[in-house]
């Protein structure tokens, strides 16, 4: 065929050129992606309080929550597009789908104060370690960092997601490995461990339900697997390769969570640990042993950079999902659905920021920064767990009501997995209302009222009010067109 003949047939050639090739990824790549999105050094001080028992307290939620969540979400993602809203809306009802996507968004309202509380305490070690216990300093850093993130996100900045991979290496893997290696050398030099490391200490001491409350924080550490499940369709053999990816990711995540927590427990006594500044406490202590304290501010900046990169990466994500559904179904007032010239849901981000600012004041008003950090972490976890409860129920109903619906992956023993995951999530949600034994001396009823008001008010009452008082005018006639534009932005 001549060049002229070939040129005379553009439609067929164009059609072939536009036919997208399937972009497969390896199961190892998926495992690393999952590890990058889940693993972090931030929760290490929380579990370091338990010493060797941290291993047990990380393994339990990995088996009863992380594994069921991963496998169940993979089946849902491979069969129904549209994320958790479509899964729950199809499996249960549209109102419950709205509740699920709302909880996925609302948990970030308390998540960012906890994340930035960690940033504030870490940054304090770069400037003045005494600031780590200052609630005013913590509140100031939260407000400044969050609004800076809103400003950056509202400008539609591209390429921010690439910061997450760099953040994993710079702010998690390198500092974590350094902490573990120096901790091991510290013990190897004959220094005693601050926490006993005998087999008898593998299980946490039982002092009633309050002694196990800190395990609730691990559910938040493992959350987000439903986000990674969307990649199951990119595997060549999902049935075989996805379980491999999940078990490899679980192993890597457990190593990243457990080893730094143990290293901290070797170096810093439990009674001296700050839940927000514990990582820097450990670094400061072990570096002092080797006369390497000049590295402390460098490590602090690396941790801060990784946390801020993670915040920017996730800042607009959950709110975008809520926006798309609300514009299609009319769940939010038009003011909250408004987009700026860059196609970003700026009004929704600003409203979220105002609430975050009020929550940040809690650090200034609650005397103990660690107590404020823990309370906000519990509220974050409980709101997110509501979404998981709905997801497990929807998965069972979809398996029964749509047994022949095509799925790229079918979770083995789905009913049992959902039962275990639902029971574990419900237990974690209920236990979260109990003050932990490590925070004695306070009024348990005040703790209960704060946690219940935050979790149930934000997770159930507010979405109910939006749904109850919604108006037909809230459903925008051009929602589909603008939604596509937002999705492309």
TrEMBL record:
Keywords (A to Z) from UniProt: Cell membrane, Membrane, Transmembrane, Transmembrane helix, Transport
TM segment ranges: 21-41, 48-72, 109-128, 134-153, 160-186, 206-225, 246-268, 294-317, 348-366, 372-393, 414-434, 446-467
Domain of life the protein comes from: Bacteria
Keyword Ribosomal protein: no
Membrane topology: Multi-pass membrane protein
Broad class of where this protein is predominantly found: membrane
Family matches, as InterPro entries: AA/rel_permease1 (IPR002293), APC_superfamily (IPR050367)
Intracellular or extracellular location(s): Cell membrane
Pfam families: AA_permease_2 (PF13520)
Zinc-finger listed as a keyword: no
PANTHER family listed in its UniProt record: AMINO ACID TRANSPORTER-RELATED (PTHR42770), GLUTAMATE_GAMMA-AMINOBUTYRATE ANTIPORTER-RELATED (PTHR42770:SF15)
Protein name, entry field: APC family permease
Species: Agromyces humatus
């Amino acid at each position: 065929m001549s060049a002229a003949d070939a040129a005379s047939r553009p439609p067929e050639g164009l059609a072939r050129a536009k036919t997208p090739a399937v972009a497969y990824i390896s199961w190892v790549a998926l495992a690393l992606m999952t590890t990058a999105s889940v693993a972090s050094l931030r929760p290490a001080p929380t579990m370091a309080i338990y010493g060797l028992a941290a291993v047990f307290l990380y393994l339990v939620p990995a088996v009863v929550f992380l594994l069921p969540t991963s496998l169940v979400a993979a089946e849902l993602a491979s069969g129904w597009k549209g994320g958790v809203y479509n899964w729950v809306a199809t499996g249960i009802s549209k109102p419950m789908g709205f509740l699920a996507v709302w909880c996925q968004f609302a948990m970030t309202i308390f998540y960012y104060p906890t994340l930035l509380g960690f940033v504030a305490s870490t940054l304090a070690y770069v400037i003045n370690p005494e600031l780590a216990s200052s609630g005013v300093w913590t509140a100031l850093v939260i407000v400044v960092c969050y609004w800076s993130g809103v400003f950056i996100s509202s400008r539609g900045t591209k390429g921010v997601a690439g910061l997450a991979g760099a953040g994993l290496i710079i702010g998690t893997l390198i500092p974590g490995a350094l902490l573990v290696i120096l901790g091991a050398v510290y013990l190897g030099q004959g220094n005693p461990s601050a926490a006993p490391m005998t087999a008898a200490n593998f299980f946490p001491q039982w002092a009633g339900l309050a002694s196990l409350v800190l395990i609730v924080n691990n559910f938040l550490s493992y959350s987000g697997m439903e986000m990674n499940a969307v990649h199951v369709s990119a595997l060549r053999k999902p049935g075989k390769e996805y379980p491999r990816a999940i078990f490899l990711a679980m192993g890597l995540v457990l190593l990243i969570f457990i080893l730094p927590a143990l290293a901290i427990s070797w170096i810093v006594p439990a009674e001296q640990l700050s839940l927000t500044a514990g990582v820097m406490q450990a670094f400061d202590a072990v570096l002092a042993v080797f006369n390497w304290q000049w590295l402390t501010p460098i490590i602090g900046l690396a941790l801060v950079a990784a946390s801020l990169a993670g915040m920017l990466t996730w800042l607009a994500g959950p709110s975008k999902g809520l926006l798309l559904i609300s514009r299609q179904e009319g769940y939010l007032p038009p003011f909250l659905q408004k987009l700026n010239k860059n196609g970003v849901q700026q009004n929704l981000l600003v409203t979220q920021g105002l609430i975050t600012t009020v929550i940040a004041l809690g650090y200034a008003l609650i005397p103990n920064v660690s107590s404020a950090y823990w309370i906000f972490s519990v509220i974050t976890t409980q709101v997110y767990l509501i979404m998981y409860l709905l997801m497990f129920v929807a998965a069972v109903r979809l398996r029964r009501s749509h047994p022949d619906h095509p799925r790229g992956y079918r979770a083995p023993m789905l009913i049992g997995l959902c039962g275990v995951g639902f029971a574990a999530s419900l237990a974690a949600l209920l236990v979260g209302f109990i003050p932990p034994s490590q925070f004695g001396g306070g009024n348990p009823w005040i703790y209960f009222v704060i946690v219940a008001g935050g979790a149930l008010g934000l997770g159930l009452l507010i979405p109910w009010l939006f749904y109850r008082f919604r108006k037909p005018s809230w459903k925008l006639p051009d929602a589909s067109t603008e939604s596509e534009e937002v999705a492309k932005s």
